[in-house]
Amino acid sequence: MTKKKMIISQETMDVDFVRKVEALAGTSVRSCFQCGKCSAGCPMATFMEHPPNRIMRLLQLGQWQRVLAGRSIWYCVSCETCTTRCPNTVDLASIMDALRKLSWDSDGASKESYVQLANKLFLQNIRTYGRQYEMRLAAVFNVKSGQFLKDLMLGPKLIAKGKLKVFHSKNKNMSEIEKIFTRIEEMRKKGVAL
Amino acid sequence: MKKLLDYSYYPGCSLHASASEYDLSTRELFKALGIGLTEVPDWFCCGATPAHNVDELLSLSLCAKNLELADKVEGDMAVACASCFSRLKTAQHVLGVSEVKRKQVEKAIDAPVKLDSNVKHLLEILAKDLGLERLAAAVNKPLSGLKVACYYGCLLTRPADVPNLDCAEAPTIMEKVIEAVGAETVAWTHRLECCGANFTLSRPGVVIQLTNAVLESAKAAGADCIMVGCPLCHGNLDIRQKEIEGVYNTSYGLPVFYLTQLIGISVGLGADKLGLDAMMVNPMPLLKEKGLL
Q1: CA-based angle B57:B107:A97, to the nearest 5?
Q2: Which of A24, A173, B10, B264 could form a disulfide with B274 if both were Cys (CB 3.0 to 4.6 A apart)?
Q3: Where do you find CATH 1.20.1050.140 in chain B?
């Protein structure tokens, strides 16, 4: 990654965005004093260009574009180790959720596409079937990500073991799940929910 | 027959597919122990990690809807999957703290949120509701000589103030349960480390690296097998084990049991009732060697 000089000034600091993150996550970004315990325990830090404590520092400085541009937030696996260990009770795992939501809503602000694709298909499955349909999830993921051969040898073995179901039944109360999705969409349209 | 205890059972999506042996062994074990399970009618997916990752309101609403559905069945809620358990407990926690979010969710599901219902993981039911003494009394075939590495993974205990199953950093509930049925447990470094969870679909390379560390640690501690209470952990440790052995040019050969399978063996249930044939790493040689099947 090429290093771009970071200029901290009133013009480059977007604190409104950070307030939104805090509201969504129900926790304080400002409480972090950079002890680094979150990054020390993070199983995914080695895969991130910004480890968790640096994400916190960038947020404190209002430099959220840098955070969203990379793949770090999508490489968080939601193991909750950071939240468990923070000495200042910052709920960092919820901050990651909030950042992903804001990135997701602004449609493709990040370079990481596979994790986002998996999430999208997962949520579509819930809306269509009410439950997860693992076979379909894996098959559509491979097609849409262009990895037709991914885990190809595993599929037949899993079917033989009864671990992938070829057929899937729909819930009887599917209209209720659709209503939940539409009510949330309506609330957002009216601006009464984030 | 009047059951000892009765629960509304929320299996979750995995237990109806990739973790069907967890579902089977849970139903059979609980039947053998005299614990009643009635499946929540027409339950929905809890949203798991993808929902809370990008849409908290949806995640909370799906969980609140399931709590409402579960309320129609008598008894506390029994949850098998660590991820479903974590999501349902988190929803109760968040909706209890934030009135704004609770009102939004109530609008989304068009019903009041059930904050007071008890959501329990199977481990909690076995260790606390049934109790270790009664569990020990049900044993017909003690798992003597079997060295078990108890793998908690992430979501059974973290974060500290949400699942309230056991201590977040030094839990012992799994060890207590499996020792109660005669097994030995090993002390090992990676029992609370993440296996990579749902990255198995999007970024399997990550899972291979993280899960390898877990397998390596269990093997180094002298474990014969690993015990889990989560279908995602199981999928990574069991289904991907052979692939991992290939990548790291090593051999682990560690069968990965669901807690209900191991306890099921100890109460005398047969392999067909525990879905042992669904495991990718064949447990039969180990179980025969220890005289358990």
Answers
A1: 5
A2: B264
A3: 5-121
